[in-house]
Amino acid sequence: MSGLGFSQTTLPSGVPTTLLLPALAAPPSVASSKSNSVDILPDAPGEPTEHRVAARTTDHPAGLVSRNLRRGLEDQKQLYLAALKPKNLKWDALFLAATGGLLAVDRQASRQIGIGDLGVSHGIALACLLGTSAAAGGTWLYGIKSGNRHADETGELTLETLANTFLIYTPMQFIAGRERPDEGTGNGRFWVHRSFNTSFPAGHPMFTWAMATVVAHEYPRTWVKLAMYGAAASVSVTRFTGRNHFASDIWVGSALGYLIGTHIFHARCAPELSEACPPREKEPE
Questions:
Q1: Domain residue ranges in the chain
Q2: How far is the C-alpha of 265 from the C-alpha of 104, rounded, in Å?
Q3: What confidence tens digit (pLDDT) does each residue in 159-198 have?
Q4: CB neighbours (10 Å) of residue 50?
Q5: Predicted pLDDT of residue 108
Q6: Peptide bond before residue 205 is cis, with ω within 30 degrees of 0
Q7: 3-class SS at 113?
Q8: Counting beta carbons within 10 angstroms of the beta carbon of residue 43, is it exposed (0 to 12), middle (13 to 18) or buried (19 or more)?
Q9: What's the helix, strand, coil split of the chain in %, to 5?
Q10: Which is higher by pLDDT, 20 or 154?
Q11: Distance between CA atoms of 44 and 166, rounded to whole angstroms?
């Protein structure tokens, strides 16, 4: 897979949205027999809920670190191998075709953006990123303080998703080394920079979509989806109108963030906590 441009700012940490937390942390009022989520990687290995709970309460620090390291390596393995699965090849082709089409028009599209309202776009993108971070982080704090397992899982899976997103985003940044729209000749040349925080893939959209996807899957209510995906989409749009990234950068970053968040949720969620979590197959005795 290819990635898209990332913002020149570092990832901030949260904004007060505590008014959302009581509603988010409350268990869904109506259980659904079918998942509302997109089953991107249905074959991803899950960890039995009882094992997860036991590890959380009985592991020593060294054992906890070792378990999380193994879990992270397994996540990375599954994420990188997902594109090679035969059932995903048609989606790979569509993804690459869309990326190629956007690359062909990147320069012309970017030059249509004026420079008068860049500050507004930057402000909106930052506010939406901070708001999404605050919603996820605040939900986790609520879960820790109140003992709400669903809110606790939401925070933990969001953190796990961000870690996996970072491990994919970082090498793509160094490999692509792409110029931003306002750098050099404005043509978005690749392999120019040999540093972190370049244009490809777009980091603000990638990390925002990753967080938003986990929260929207954990609480699959219409208003939660609108809030989370609306914030993520706003970041994607305003990073383009703010001339921080080319369109192809944003497309790749947004898509990867969504796919990573979806995979981590399906692989690690507890079916008894979220109605969107697929049932786990029982291990043979």
A1: 18-24+38-268
A2: 34
A3: 999 999 999 999 999 999 999 998 888 899 999 988 888 9
A4: 9
A5: 93
A6: no
A7: coil
A8: exposed
A9: 65, 0, 35
A10: 154
A11: 20
Reported as a single tens digit per residue, the pLDDT across 224-258 is 999 999 999 999 999 999 999 999 999 999 999 99
Radius of gyration of the chain (CA): 19
**Residue the block writes with tokens 């699965």:** 85
How far apart are the C-alpha atoms of 198 and 15, rounded to whole Å?
25
Spell 230-240 as b/e; 16+ CB within 10 A means b.
ebbbbbbbbbb
Q: Nearest to residue 267, comparing CAs of 45, 65, 76?
A: 45
**Closest-CA residue to 200 (of 159, 233, 168):** 168
Specify the amino acid at residue 48: P
**Pair 195, 6: CB distance under 8 Å:** no
Spatial CA neighbour of 155 closest among 12, 7, 21? 21
| DSSP symbol at 196 | S
